[in-house]
Amino acid sequence: MSTFSRTLKNNINEVVKKVLDGDVRTIARLITLIEDGSFEIADILAKLHTYTGKAHIIGITGPPGVGKSCLIDKLIREYRKKGLSVGVLAIDPTSPFTGGALLGDRIRMKEHSTDSGVFIRSMGSRGSLGGLSKATGYAVKVLDASGKDIVIIETVGAGQTQVDIIKYAHTVVLVLMPKIGDEIQAMKTGIYEIGDIFVVNKADQENADQAVREIEEFVEYEYERLKERGVHPIWKKPVIKTVAVKGEGINKLVEEIEKHKNFLIESKIMEKLKIEKSKSEVLEVLSQKIYEHILRKTGTDEEFKSILHKVASGEVDPYSAANLLLKKFILNWEA
């Protein structure tokens, strides 16, 4: 057990206070324990939960190579000009050797590394198909409780499986670039649904205006379709051109993020999002506890071993076996 783990175990209130005070070292160590799946974090997360719910959480997603990290770098700069503190969780592919993120904090956004109002952390995706580490939600809570006004989550990439970002973010920014129809292809694969704001980055490249027009046409079509279905209220998704390396279009992007935040609050959608997030969190913890409970019970259970043999021989299917185990180990379970 590490020194920090012993401190955590013996004096949870002290650790909570340090997180609330924004102590960088404590926050970083706590997120490490979260990534490691340490059971020691449950009590501290429970105490920190009271202090969450103030940060606006922004998801930045899009295909590899569109300049997400550069865009985030400029967003940090813009928010810091406004006097807002920023936390960044950059979800990277996991190293097959260390289990950590392949890209590190120092490679990204390094000009902010000495700014006490900015916390940047790379986290490995750990094989998650949703583009996010399973520890992301808890890490967001820690940054929120630590007083960060803005929490930005950058995903590994975008695609039909990379939609977990909507579980955590209030505003999702989908970043694309003007290249061989990537924009409309992204729309067709269903990725459109997760984006609240579209950004065509590297807009100084050829065909940028065409890309923007095509996305705007798609946005207009979807907007009218929702109106016909009687959906209300509807957020009309803006399409913004940026050249992140030059800082162009960043002010406009920040304005649209703020507009979306206000839309969520005024339309009461923010309340619904918080309830859905809470439901997701509770069910995730519940499923984990049920899993751990059954795992403990089955360790030395002869009936469990017998059922496994029947599944292996084809006598019983896995679904029926699972129902038998649930009835055995979970009181009054009805499949």
What features would you describe in this structure?
- The protein has 335 residues and is an alpha/beta fold.
- The protein folds into three domains: 50 residues, no CATH class; 216 residues, P-loop containing nucleotide triphosphate hydrolases (Rossmann fold); 50 residues, no CATH class.
- It contains 13 helices and seven strands.
- The protein has a seven-stranded parallel beta sheet with strand order 3-2-4-1-5-6-7, sandwiched between helices.
- Helix 8 links the parallel strand 5 and strand 6.
- The longest helix has 30 residues.
- The radius of gyration is 22 Å and the shape is globular.
- The relative contact order is 0.10.
Q: Average pLDDT value?
A: 84
CA radius of gyration is 22 Å
Q: State which percent range the strand residues make up.
A: 5-15%
Distance between the termini: 40 Å
The total domain count is 3
Helix percent reads: 40-55%
Helices and strands in order:
Elements: H1 3-10, H2 12-20, H3 24-35, H4 42-48, E1 56-61, H5 68-81, E2 86-92, E3 118-124, H6 136-145, E4 150-154, H7 165-168, E5 171-176, H8 182-188, E6 197-200, H9 208-228, E7 239-241, H10 250-266, H11 269-298, H12 302-313, H13 318-329
Parallel strand pairs: 1-4, 1-5, 2-3, 2-4, 5-6, 6-7
Helix pairs in contact: 1-2, 2-4, 3-6, 5-10
